[in-house]
Amino acid sequence: MGKIATMEYFRVPPRWLFVKITDEDGHVGWGEASLEGHTQAVEGCLDGWFDRYKGMDADQIEHIWQMSWRTSFYRGGPVFMSALAGIDIALWDLKARKLGVPIYQLLGGKLRDKIKVYAWIGGDRPGDVETQALARKAQGFTAVKMNATEDLGWLDSPSALADCVERVKAVKNLGMDAGVDFHGRVHKPMAKQLARALEPHSPLFIEEPLLSEHPGGIAALAAQTTCPIALGERLHSRWEVRPFLENGCVDILQPDIAHVGGISEMRRIAAMAETYDVAIAPHCPLGPIALAANFQVDVCTPNFAIQEMSLGIHYNNTGQDITSYIKNPEVWKVEEGYVTMLSGPGLGIEIDEEQIRALSADAKPWISPGFIGPHGEIREW
């Protein structure tokens, strides 16, 4: 049994936060605690937990998870659960590397050899996506996701929705599937119209048709449309997921492994969703460590459907991508819509610590962009 000797975090561009844990025997594990736009808050939480957990047995992953959840009095939420995710993923990586096996071998073994994936096209202000979709097709993808609209007013002109339908049709005409992310920026009067307009064009799913703070509205919308409804990136534990499963308003659950407390809680959420016949399609517009952690869960999850990966996503505009910070970027090669499962020990990626340390030296925190309406009002991003 190796006790935790050191715990470090590294803020790196474009907007990621990596965690390194080393035990007294020199075994190392890496995690990701990225919380887009709130890096400093997560770092503060990690500072407190690092002081507390040094000297504890690194093998006791569940004990440390439960300590983080139950002994803080205040629990859950994006900051605590993202910090916990960084620690949890790193501890799983450390333990599996020490044993010389992939993490999935500690989770019951794999159920599949390949992981179905999709990538983003367009951006926060989506325009012509046909060229980008063709580029994704050339990369090996068979499915993509795009933002539904630019920012909208609470009640906007119905004409603001027409472009979304045309973009979905353009992608479908290329023989690809298209998920449509409403991004919580479409309010109820518009969301009902857009879901109805998209229905004849069979989107792969509509994501966050309303914000998850409106479960009643989502349930009502779910009863009005045949489009599969996906959500979950802003739900941070199984307790927050539960009401959406109970009211039957979600078809595809999208927990983010870096926001739900890591591998441990992702496994529990997936198992809970299986009992409601709900598929898992993990949210991951993040870095290579979070993506590798998702792969370790995806491969042994019976209700896994498809995995988001941020290769070339519009946020990665600083020169770094999921192929950065690792020495084996070839693991992300996409063929016919799938990535072959990672086979190395731990997370299955080889961390380039020298690059991480170099680029973290002066890394600035990423700030979430905001939308301002034509009359100065703040709109949902």
Short summary:
The chain is built from eleven helices and 14 strands.
Question: Would you give an account of this structure?
Answer:
InterPro entries: DgoD-like, Enolase-like_C_sf, Enolase-like_N, Enolase_C-like, Galactonate_deHydtase, Mandel_Rmase/mucon_lact_enz_CS, Mandelate_racemase_C, Mandelate_racemase_N_dom. It holds the Pfam family MR_MLE_C. Keywords: Lyase, Magnesium, Metal-binding. The protein is an alpha/beta fold and 381 residues long. α1 (39-53) crosses α3, α2 runs antiparallel to α3 and α8 (238-246) packs parallel to α9. It is globular and about 65 Å long. The longest helix is centred in the N-terminal third of the chain and has 23 residues, at 77-99. It has helices spanning 39-53, 61-70, 77-99, 130-139, 162-172, 188-198, 215-222, 238-246, 263-274, 288-298, 353-360; strands spanning 4-12, 16-23, 28-32, 114-120, 143-147, 177-181, 205-207, 229-231, 252-253, 279-280, 307-308, 338-340, 371-372, 378-379. It has two domains: 4-101, Enolase-like, N-terminal domain (Enolase-like, domain 1, 2-Layer Sandwich), CATH 3.30.390.10; 105-351, Enolase-like C-terminal domain (TIM Barrel, Alpha-Beta Barrel). α4 (130-139) links the parallel β4 and β5.
